[in-house]
Amino acid sequence: MLLDVIIICLGFAGLIWGADKFVFGASALARNLGISPLVIGLTIVAFGTSAPEIFSSAASALAGEPELAIGNAIGSNIFNLGVALGVAIIIKPITPPKSLSRKEMPALLLVSVVCGLLLANLYLGAADSLILIGVIAYFIYALFTRKAAGLEEDDTELPEQTSILRASGFLALGLTLLIIGAEALVYSAISIADTLGVSSGIIGLTLVALGTSLPELAATVTCALRGHHELAIGNIIGSNILNILVVLPFPGLLAAGSFNSDLFYRDYTAMMVMTLLLAALCYFAIRHGKQIGRLSGIAFLLLYVGWFGIMYYQIH
């Protein structure tokens, strides 16, 4: 057990340092390629921090555990909004970019609604997965074919000019540390939970989602601390979109079948409530030129605690 504690501490160190290098590399890459930091946050950062969910979902589906994969995707989205974004906002209020209300937030709302419609019959099959894959294909096409906005007023958020090779190196190093750190944390936490006799239901529904979402927490908090508001909120939105459109298709394609109704009625509902709250806060902040303040961060955390409490009560 002592070894597990040491591994967890090393995992946290890897996450913190890795997130810093990953965000630096992504920001520098945005400056070199002339791409908006929001687009970088929605793609490279979001995909990188969603890698643990993607890999674990594929492994779960191949092992014949579709509910674990579905729960991981939805649970990770709940953690991203309730904890990662909540903590980041409490540490430092975030100013959402104006473009968010026209493109990225509507995309997240659309994807979330489509997800609900597909899961409403409590069955996830190949046809559902193909619909999700079609949506992500269109999303990527629309994102990269729209006219490049270039670097606008927000270029002050970017680091000093750094070569593409050096920026890519930091990006790869940071991503590697994020994934290794997250995996070390989740496996050691599960080992400690087993040693302490914690129920397997709690381990599966919380630690797996928590472990695979730690990169989002580390990267989002780091972005907020460095003043990279677009990267911070873009990472959360992009990661949640990818969790639905990229992670969910694996169980549908590799292990199609029905799943526990709690995953829809309890967990999807919680995810949708938090998503709608984020949309409302972003639209209000953009319209009135305000920040998303600490009280909003506390609200996200309370929603997460409430969802966790309901889940814990139902399991026992």
From TrEMBL:
Please provide the Gene Ontology terms (biological process) for this protein: intracellular calcium ion homeostasis
Q: Does the keyword Metal-binding apply?
A: no
Q: How does it sit in the membrane?
A: Multi-pass membrane protein
Segments spanning the bilayer are 78-95, 107-124, 170-190, 202-225, 237-256, 268-286, 298-315
Q: What name has this protein been given in UniProt?
A: Sodium/calcium exchanger membrane region domain-containing protein
* Biological source species: marine sediment metagenome
Pfam family example for this protein?
Na_Ca_ex
Keyword Transcription assigned: no
> Keywords assigned by UniProt?
Membrane, Transmembrane, Transmembrane helix
Q: Name one GO molecular function term.
A: calcium channel activity
Q: Which NCBIfam families match?
A: calcium/sodium antiporter
Using the UniProt record, give the first listed, main subcellular location: membrane
Location relative to the cell: Membrane
